[in-house]
Amino acid sequence: MKAVRSVQKTNFYDLAIRLAFFGVFLFAIVEAFKFPGVSRIFPLVVGITGFAISLYLVMVEIKVLFAEGAKQIQVAFNLRAFLRMETVLMALTVGYLAALWLIGYIVSSLIFIILSIRILGERNYIKSGLISIFTVALTYFLFRQWLSVPLPSGVLW
Amino acid sequence: MHPICHVFTATNFIALIASVFLGIIFGALPGIGPNLGCALLLSITFGLPADTALVALGGMYTGAVYGGSSTSILLGIPGSAANSATVLDGYPMSRKGKAFEALGAATCASFLGGVIGVVALFAVSPLLTKVALSFGPPEYFMLGVFSLTVIPVLSRKNIAKGLMMSLFGLMLGCVGLDSIRGFPRYTFGVQYLNDGINYVVVLIGLFAMSEVLNLSSEKTSISRTGKLLGSVWEGVRKTFLYPLTLIRSSLIGIVGGIMPGIGGATLNIIAYNEAMRASKAPEKFGTGTVEGVIAPESSNNASVGATMIPTLTLGIPGNSVAAIIMGGIILHGLVPGPGLFREYSTLTYTFLYGLLTAQFVMLVFGLILCKWAATVTKVSTKYLIPLIIILCFIGSYGLHNNVIDIVIMLIFGVLGYLLKKQDYPFICLILGMILGVIIEKGLLRSLVMSNGSVMIFFQRPISLGIFVLLLVVMIFTLKSIKQSRTKAEQF
Fold first, then answer.
1. Could you tell me which chain B residue has the CA closest to the CA of A6?
2. Which among B164, B382, B444 has CB closest to A50?
3. How many CB contacts within 8 angstroms connect chain A with chain B?
4. Which of A153, B154, B325, B441 has the fewest Cβ atoms within 10 angstroms?
5. What is the pTM of this model?
6. Which of residues 64-83 of A touch B (CB under 8 A)?
């Protein structure tokens, strides 16, 4: 049976990831030379191997970019879709982290849960408020009171 | 009175049941796991009689190792690192609505693996300990490198990507003070990084946080259909359809568990990969196959009994939980070591029978709790997502009580989300992180032993044997991948 080759596509998003890894390994090698004696052996071996493989992956992707017959340049990563929900949720999560640091676990978690449930589509504030109170109370008593696991306490409160 | 009768006295049996139950709960909570569970219990068992305390500690350990499978399967959050490979197929099964089946298989495999592990503890302790003790730094190094041979299997779609991820993991394992000279590497002057990056934080970020971001755009439930298909018994039945996977994984758990420093975190990944390597349908792994749940779960529970082998017979704890249990043993006046089975035979065998009984208690609780737990996959993601994020935060923060752990978790969450879109296999990164420490320690200590000569790896019979095995496995793996690619191109 004859093998059928699909049209080669360049994925700029994947190319960016490969380049990022290439940069990381290059940096790791440069840093490793600053380590003394035996401390540098393993990071150097890993760094050089990683550098070689990431270089290979970058070259493969670039080769596809300039290959004859590469009819389509694809950006697999849908930036607009990403900006819609995931980014909002991630921003809220980062905000939650900052709030944890400032005002501690209980208040910041109550606010975070209400806001995130709202963003994710629940319009009923009473319902989201009750879920929030129940979740925070349950996790607080389970982790802090019962298991003595420390929860973040804020610098202000 | 026979030691087994000691286990079934009212006090001891109630302590066992309670500790297994608590262990399952602790294991399911990210960041708690067997370590904290046993440490908490140890403080409670000070005042208890020695047999009750030891039976309870064994029960806690058994329950906690199993408990981590439930959050791995249902929410995609590994309860502990020993359940990390369970996520790979357990969670996709939940997404297909097969949470009952996955939990049933995990429970049954954990039970069978656990029983095999304890039987090994009874039967072959002295022999296995002797083998494990002949492992020095060169053997550990070779074993670590050998474990890396699973990378081509894990990343069949793109081996180079898998290799790059594992090398990135190895590099992350280098962060912190080096094991020989204590020189800070890649710490950028940040004191927190001197201890290195904890792989549990990375694990939570890569698996759970990235999945939260994925789920946020779906607006359904974890079970895509919103229904629960099949039954727990279907999972139990299917476990018996893969006897070779079960036995192989349990043996991996036993052999690896005996070796100090290897631990369930590495073993469950190795067991998963060996199951994949031996499977007739390796392409199904990662998409929600029950075999991918059976392998890691049987291996991590088999390692429970196995880690106790060097602990009891030599006084060398196989891992941190075994060290806590050893603390409990010493606290109650026993001296772990060759004389333990002779001088304190009743107490020692009570502990062992307690460990065996704990497997049965775990099975009963597991099968009962499965039915309740699986319903979480029907809950809308708009309510689950905030809860998962909070659990990720608590799990990460609880490790060192440091907010930086949460920051690292979030970074890896975003990284995981981006990498997942392009089929980069995360598990290679985790494997690299865990093995990096073992490989580097083995390499440097071997070089110190041999005054810098690499011939030490080929002069010792076990090390040479592992090297030969490594070559054979690599040749066969690459050959089989080449064959499967040729087939794929033809059709």
1. B489
2. B164
3. 165
4. A153
5. 0.79
6. 76-77, 81
Is A85 in Cβ contact with B424 (below 8 Å)?
Answer: no
Pairing between β-strand A72-74 and β-strand B176-177 as defined by DSSP bridges: unpaired
Rounded to an integer, what distance in angstroms lies between the CA atom of residue B317 and that of residue B302? Answer: 16
Sequence-distant (≥ 6) Cβ neighbours of residue B458 within 8 angstroms: B464, B467
Tell me which residue in B40, B424, B489 faces A3 most closely, judged by beta carbons.
B489
Question: What are the pLDDT tens digits along chain B (491 aa)?
Answer: 777 888 889 989 999 999 999 888 888 877 677 877 787 787 777 778 888 888 999 999 999 889 888 888 988 887 777 888 898 899 999 888 888 999 999 999 999 999 998 888 888 766 766 666 677 889 888 888 887 877 777 776 778 888 899 999 999 999 998 877 888 999 988 888 888 888 878 888 888 888 888 888 777 777 777 777 778 899 999 999 999 999 999 999 888 887 766 667 778 888 888 888 888 888 788 888 999 999 999 998 998 888 888 777 777 776 778 888 888 888 787 877 767 777 777 888 888 899 999 999 999 999 998 888 877 777 888 888 898 899 889 888 887 888 889 999 999 999 998 888 888 888 888 888 888 888 888 888 898 888 888 888 898 888 899 899 888 888 887 777 777 667 666 65
Q: Which tokens hold the place of B360? A: 């049965």
Smallest Cα distance from A44 to chain B, Å: 9
Q: Is B419 within 8 Å of A17 when comparing Cβ atoms?
A: yes
Integer angstrom CA distances of residue B352 from A79, B356, B358, B382: 57, 6, 10, 46
With CA atoms as reference, the chain A residue closest to B414 would be A90
Q: Min CA distance, B198 vs chain A (Å)? A: 18
- Residue B60, both tokens: 């806690």
Distance from CA of A157 to the nearest CA of B (A): 16
Taking Cα atoms as reference points, which of B249, B264, B221, B251 lies closest to residue B62?
B264
The H-or-E segment that residue A83 falls in is helix A79-84
A41 contacts on B by Cβ (under 8 Å): 443-444, 447
Contact A113, A136 (CB under 8 A): yes
ipTM reported for the complex, 2 dp = 0.86
Q: Which residue of B has its CA nearest to A78?
A: B421
A17 CA to chain B: closest CA distance, Å? 8
**Max Cα separation, chain A?**
71
Q: Please, are residues B480 and B164 in contact by the beta-carbon 8 Å criterion?
A: no
Q: Does A85 touch chain B (CB under 8 A)?
A: yes
E strand map for B148-264: 176-177, 184-185
Helix then strand count (H, E) for chain A reads 6, 2
Cβ distance of B386 and A148 shorter than 8 Å: no
Residue type, B210: S
Distance CA A21, CA B170 (A): 13
Q: Which residues of B touch A28 (CB under 8 A)?
A: 171, 174, 186
Cβ atoms < 10 Å from Cβ of B331: 13
Q: Pull the structure tokens for residue A101.
A: 């640091």
How large is the C-alpha radius of gyration of chain B?
22
Q: Which two tokens stand for residue A39?
A: 């401390």
